[in-house]
Specification:
The complex is a heterodimer. By secondary structure, chain A is an all-beta fold. Helix content of chain A is 0%, strand content 52%. The chains are: A mainly beta, B mainly beta.
């Protein structure tokens, strides 16, 4: 099976712009989560989607948003970019069949640089 | 509020040695504790995971030890190899509330010298 894919892999934007990142989960996986990774803050949870519904949201400003499509693919959007948004954005997918927590499989990430 | 505290921040061991990374958590609702390994330029990959109904889980050279009363868990890498050089993250989650959100430790950069 193909793993989690994320596009684009690298992105350079300037302050004030907006950006959309895409994630395709492993085939058959229904849950997608997004994390931000920075050297200072480490890995921080952004949001989680299941069946096109946001199930949980991390402590990030409203400039960060996301959605999930009927084929489980997900996108996240960051508007009005700030320098501090420079980070590796990771997407993870899981099967989510109910019951105990399923393993989350991470993609390679999108490296966003804000100038 | 850092819910999962990981130590040490960095670790250097010799080939063949034992690498030990420790984590402590605060939220007693956590019931799933995975360890992830991340190489530069890659996303984190699941290494091994444990649930609180067992005190130890071993997979090859990797062992998780879990102490529920102390709210601590640790990763032991036996016979460490240069190829194990990576950053290791402990994490925790709870399936209560229907979310699988992972809370991560800050990471440990492991260097195994040949």
């Amino acid at each position: 099976k193909a793993g989690v894919t994320q596009t684009p892999r690298y992105l350079i934007k300037t302050r004030g712009q907006q950006v959309t990142l895409s994630c395709s989960p492993i085939s058959g996986h229904r849950s997608v989560s997004w994390y931000q990774q920075t050297p200072g803050q480490g890995l921080q949870f952004l949001f989680e989607y299941f069946s096109e519904t946001q199930r949980n949201k991390g402590n990030f400003p409203g400039r960060f948003s996301g959605r999930q499509f009927s084929n489980s693919r997900s996108e996240m959007n960051v508007s009005t970019l700030e320098l501090g948004d420079s980070a590796l954005y990771l997407c993870a997918s899981s099967l989510r069949v109910g019951g105990p927590t399923d393993t989350q499989y991470f993609g390679p990430g999108t490296r966003l640089t804000v100038l | 509020q850092q819910q999962v505290k990981q130590s040490p921040q960095s670790l250097i061991v010799q080939k063949g040695g034992i690498s030990i990374i420790n984590c402590a958590y605060e939220n007693t609702a956590f019931d799933y504790f995975p360890w992830y390994q991340q190489f530069p330029g890659k996303g984190p990959a699941l290494l091994i995971a444990i649930r609180p109904d067992v005190s130890e889980k071993k997979e090859g050279r990797f062992t998780i030890s879990f102490n529920k009363s102390a709210k601590q868990f640790s990763l032991h890498i036996m016979d460490s190899q240069p190829g194990d050089s990576a950053t290791y993250f402990c994490a925790a989650s709870s399936d209560r509330g229907g979310s699988e959100k992972l809370v991560f430790g800050k990471g440990t950069k492991l260097t195994v010298n040949p």
